[in-house]
Design brief:
Elements (H helix, E strand, L loop, with lengths): L20 H13 L11 H8 L3 H13 L3 E4 L3 E4 L11 H4 L24 E2 L12 H15 L13 H15 L5 E5 L1 H13 L5 E6 L3 H9 L3 E8 L2 E2 L1 H10 L2 E6 L13 H14 L3 E4 L24 E6 L11 E5 L1 H12 L7 H13 L1 H28 L5 E3 L6 E5 L5 H10 L2 E2 L1 E2 L11 E5 L5 H17 L1
Parallel strand pairs: 3-14, 5-6, 5-8, 8-9, 9-10
Antiparallel strand pairs: 1-2, 4-11, 6-7, 10-11, 12-13, 13-16, 15-16
Helix pairs in contact: 1-3, 2-3, 5-12, 6-12, 7-8, 7-11, 13-15, 14-15
Length: 481
């Protein structure tokens, strides 16, 4: 058996490369099916050309390609034979093949995702903003302005830190609106990416993360995906119970504390000023960093919202996560992580292992919109609209409380209200409501250890009439139980 001949060009006279490909595919299928065994001589190139209705030269190009793949061997003056198989372990018996599967080694599995609700008539489960409140004409103008001014260069991806103009505008906005001053900011795909970045950068297998209970379970998933253990700290009417956290720090080596101080998720309570000071002092004394999630700071309706923990002079150990998705729309996946330049260098390198860059057009358009003043005008209008929806939601719940046992915690801010249904199995009530098109967040889905009769009802993206109708369905089902 001699060496394979020099491969012929796969280009036909008219420049096309495709004439030989169907022939090679047909021969490859025949070899895979076992109709030609190892060592068997193939028909001559003239016979194959006649069989496939192509020129003999086309067949020879296809055969040379299969030789290059190791499927055939060329013999001078003899033709082409089926190549012997590569040596390897014995193939399983026919009856074993159906049971033979390759198993990937899964090191970490965050567990099954939350069940998808699909389309529901009354979406009270997620506290997301109402896209109908957006000034679409302004947004369209910002996108058009970016594309007209920058042309095709606008289509370049933003670098890993984010569009420089957007970074500048967000840093300035945080100083104006939230009294937070950072030297650097990393633009992320929503706040959830920021939480995941922090988890995979700061945590290792077996590390302990202290979280609020009840709390934000998507963050728990990110911590567990990094191999960490999530340990609950109770929440009461003044927010995270700092005394309980202190007892935990005495017992366990905690690597991170995750908190939502403003409009705590899901109860909507605000961490009191004394507890804020105590939390900062306690964690600083123990050398434990804080991951602060300030996801909807601007939606505050009674007085001014308290400044973030990160705004305190005694907060060098606070990593700050925020999002524009609550202020613009759920589909605008722009968040931010803020902290020291040294730490953000590490976070940026971590991010590059999975995401090379961000959405350059959207980030440039948002930078333009913020610089022009449209973003803050929208936030002011939206805050007034959501304050009216909150008041209407509380009126609906007050009427409901006259019909069934129901306790309501009026929220100072946010896009949802926390309710207690003390005489009803809350998960079953939520299930029955879902059958009738009302989606809610039952408290047990957001708890680790604490029992909960709570239910989170979001009013952000439904009208007052829709919220009232949904509450009527809940009351109706509660009476039937």
């Amino acid at each position: 058996m001699g060496p394979s001949p020099k491969p012929r060009s796969a280009v036909s006279r008219d420049g096309r490369r495709t004439r030989w490909v169907p022939v090679a595919q047909a021969l490859r299928r025949a070899l895979a099916s076992g109709s030609r065994v190892a060592g068997e001589l193939l028909p001559s190139t003239r016979e194959l050309a006649s069989t496939y209705g192509v020129h003999r030269q086309t067949v020879m190009v296809a055969l040379d390609a299969l030789c290059a793949e190791g499927l055939l061997c060329a013999e001078p003056r003899r033709g082409y034979r089926v190549a012997p198989p590569e040596p390897g372990p014995p193939a399983p018996r026919h009856e074993e093949r159906s049971a033979t599967r390759y198993q990937f080694r899964v090191v970490r599995d965050p567990g099954p995702p939350p069940a998808a609700l699909g389309q529901v008539r009354y979406p009270l489960h997620a506290a997301t903003p109402d896209p109908a409140l957006l000034p679409l004409r302004e947004l369209r103008a910002s996108y058009a302005h970016v594309l007209a001014r920058r042309g095709t260069s606008a289509l370049h991806a933003a670098d890993v830190d984010g569009n420089p103009a957007l970074v500048r505008e967000l840093l300035a906005y945080l100083r104006r609106a939230r009294a937070v001053q950072f030297e650097r900011l990393l633009v992320t795909c929503g706040s959830q990416e920021g939480i995941a970045l922090a988890a995979h950068t700061l945590l290792g297998p077996g590390d302990v993360v202290a979280v609020e209970d009840p709390g934000y379970f998507p963050a728990w998933r990110a911590f567990r995906a990094a191999g960490a253990e999530v340990v609950p700290v109770p929440v009461d009417a003044r927010g995270l119970h700092v005394g309980a956290l202190e007892r935990l720090l005495r017992r366990r080596r905690v690597r991170l504390v995750y908190v939502t101080p403003n409009h705590q998720y899901p109860t909507t309570v605000t961490l009191s000023a004394p507890r804020r000071r105590a939390l900062l002092d306690l964690t600083l004394a123990h050398g434990v960093p804080i991951l602060e999630d300030d996801y909807d700071h601007e939606y505050h309706y009674r007085g001014e919202p308290q400044p973030p923990l990160a705004a305190s002079p005694s907060a060098p150990h606070v990593l700050y996560v925020a999002s524009l998705s609550k202020l613009v729309a759920p589909g605008v996946r722009v968040g931010m992580v803020c902290g020291s330049s040294e730490l953000l260098d590490v976070l940026a390198r971590q991010r590059q292992s999975s995401v090379r860059a961000g959405d350059g057009v959207t980030q440039a358009a948002l930078a333009d919109w913020i610089a022009e003043g449209g973003f803050e005008r929208h936030v002011r209008r939206a805050r007034r609209a959501y304050a009216e929806r909150r008041d209407a939601a509380l009126e609906s719940l007050a009427r409901a409380a006259r019909k069934v046992p129901l306790e309501v915690t009026p929220p100072d801010g946010g896009l949802a209200v926390w309710t207690l249904w003390p005489r009803h199995p809350i998960v079953e009530l939520a299930r029955r409501a879902l059958v009738r098109g009302v989606a809610v967040l039952p408290g047990p889905l957001a708890t680790l250890e604490a029992s909960s009769a709570g239910m989170r009802l979001a009013y952000g993206r439904v009208s007052p009439a829709q919220f009232s109708a949904a509450v009527s369905i809940l009351v109706d089902e509660a009476k039937r139980m």
